[in-house]
Amino acid sequence: MSFTVAIDGPAAAGKGTIARAVAAEFGFAHLDTGLLYRAVGRRMLAGEDPVTAAQALRADDLGDPDALRTPEIARAASQVAVIPEVRAAMTDFQRAFAYRAGGAVLDGRDIGTVICPEAQVKLFVTASAEVRAERRLSELLAAGHETDYATVLADVKARDARDAGRATSPMVAAEDALTLDTTELSIPAAVARAFAEVAAKRG
User: Fold this and answer.
1) What is the CATH number of the domain that holds 181?
2) Would you tell me the crossing angle of helices 71-80 and 34-45 to the nearest 10 degrees?
């Protein structure tokens, strides 16, 4: 029997951390759908047509997540994500994962609104752009990337504008989603609220 948890929100809000914790707690499979777009973005940077790359994407392309987390690939991912044909190619991949037996957690931008509108649990994880930029800067510096707060904040705001403003599948909270704002709410507290929501819906 399938049970789907859809977690949406902007970059560096904490949705990936919450998604991984929920998956581990309840024994669900987890898919970071942003990696799909990063994988397509990487192939575009290598010279491939993004639509062709999206249609040819395989699970093996996600085999090294850390290699997909560079600032350059993040920008490319946001650029390819506004292409309707790319999003259409990703939809079937994500839905097949979402309805697998044993339960699944998917985190992204449009899971609860477009990919899995009938998901049993929907969460929208957000935080201020400034707080998210601080978190992202720490991650990038720890990974050895050279950047600064102003650059990262500008990138965060630009990605937010693209994600929320695109014509196809814009990033918005589903009407029936539980919003977790981690600007002030700690990640452990947000995880606890997510656990409670899933437990309540599973019955």
Assistant:
1) 3.40.50.300
2) 100
